[in-house]
Write a structure and sequence with these properties.
By secondary structure, the chain is an all-alpha fold. It is built from 12 helices and no strands. The chain has one domain. It starts with a helix and ends with a helix.
Length: 273
């Protein structure tokens, strides 16, 4: 469990950097952003698999493909929601994913979630709402896209757990990135915009931060139960907030600080429990 926690913290930090990059690149079409994110990660996964002589095909092909398709759709939906909703709203809705994951795990993986853990999950989600907030007047297509992304991401957590240690984590990530790169590459052709200056660097960094986040999230889910690992994704909100303060001069209220406290306390209590 300690390893799983460490892996998930690294993953959350990397994904927070990815969120900052996506926010900066809001003028680009979502498929172009997904393409750079996927292509950059493939630059790591392909050499790794070749060097270690690990099969690209994997053992649980159907689950690998399913995880990749669900992951691509969830990623595209979330990036689209970021363009339609305020960042705080989109991220808050997205973080329903661990709750969906724990719920699905009960029925699909027969994992047991104790009543007190559900209370901790609820506490963490309340903390996310307090930290980022909801603009209820803005619900619409953006809200629907973010909610669907959260549901699919919950399924992704469960599918990775089903794959377990039958496939190397890099094989799982490589499948996801390859399928995402092919689909987004085709879809972004009509909407391509030429990057300028710093945009090239930020676009290139998406693959690096996304790769690190993905591989460590996969390793964490393989090391422990979904219901224990998935809620640790909430740490990403805290990292994103810190990045917002340092890079975008964002300001946070006392209610936001209360949200941070709720998130951290719920994570600590759940881990100890």
């Amino acid at each position: 469990m300690r390893k799983a926690v460490e892996f998930m913290i690294i993953s959350a930090l990397a994904f927070a950097l990815l969120n900052v990059g996506v926010k900066y690149l809001s003028r680009f079409n979502v498929y172009q952003i997904v393409f750079f994110r996927a292509f950059g990660s493939l630059c790591f996964t392909f050499p790794f698999l070749i060097k270690r002589r690990i099969s690209f095909i994997g053992n649980r092909v159907k689950l690998l493909v399913l995880r990749s398709v669900f992951g691509f759709i969830a990623m595209a939906l979330f990036f689209s929601a970021l363009q339609l909703l305020p960042t705080g709203t989109a991220i808050s809705i997205r973080y329903l994913a661990p709750i969906f994951a724990a719920f699905f795990a009960v029925f699909i993986l027969r994992e047991r979630i104790k009543p007190l853990q559900w209370f901790y999950f609820t506490m963490a989600f309340v903390g996310v709402v307090a930290l980022k907030g909801f603009e209820f007047h803005s619900f619409g297509l953006g809200f629907t896209l973010a909610l669907c992304s959260a549901i699919l991401t919950g399924w992704v957590f469960v599918i990775i757990r089903q794959i377990g240690d039958k496939d190397h984590p890099m094989v799982i990530v490589n499948y996801f990135m390859l399928i995402s790169c092919i689909i987004s590459g085709i879809l972004c052709i009509r909407h391509w915009q030429h990057p300028v200056g710093l945009e090239w660097l930020v676009l290139s960094s998406l693959g690096v931060s996304g790769f690190i986040g993905q591989i460590y999230m996969t390793k964490a889910l393989q090391h422990s139960r979904t219901g224990f690992v998935a809620p640790l994704k909430y740490i990403e909100v805290v990292f994103t907030m810190i990045a917002g303060v340092l890079l975008f001069a964002e300001h946070y209220t006392i209610l936001s600080l209360v949200g941070i406290a709720l998130i951290c306390v719920s994570l600590i209590l759940n881990s100890k429990y």
